[in-house]
Design a protein that fits this description.
By secondary structure, the chain is of the alpha+beta class. The chain is about 25% helix and about 40% strand. It has one domain: Alpha-Beta Plaits (2-Layer Sandwich), CATH 3.30.70.100. It has three helices and six strands; from the N terminus they run E-E-H-E-H-E-E-H-E. The strands form two sheets. It has a four-stranded antiparallel sheet, with helices on one face. Strands 1-2 form a two-stranded antiparallel ribbon. A hairpin with a 4-residue loop joins strand 4 and strand 5.
Length: about 100
């Protein structure tokens, strides 16, 4: 939604569009990617459980699991969550996750 702001300066009138509403009030979100080591993944169901746990964290945009490498790469919004919160969600599901590097 846009509103019009009319300015009167020195007898001149200017019309300036202004953005208002939720989009104007939001802070700039920053996406960040982190790769976690998840050593406890030993069966075909383990990656599904880890992915669901991590995707359940608000702000997580995508989770890619590499079962062979025992890793999970997560893309998330840093304004909504943190790597620590994502690791905790995985640990709560029974799969402790450590940030690589």
């Amino acid at each position: 939604m846009k509103k019009i702001l009319a300015l009167a300066l020195f007898g001149l009138t200017a019309v300036v569009p202004m953005a208002v509403g939720p989009a104007a009030a939001q802070s700039v979100a920053t996406e960040h990617s982190v790769t976690f080591t998840v050593e406890n993944m030993t069966c075909a169901l383990c990656p599904v459980t880890v992915k669901r746990a991590m995707e359940g964290v608000e702000g997580v945009r995508a989770v890619e699991i590499d079962f062979a490498a025992r890793t999970a790469t997560v893309l998330f919004d840093t304004a909504s969550t943190s790597a620590e919160a994502i690791a905790a969600a995985s640990a709560n599901a029974g799969y402790p996750a450590l940030v690589e590097g």
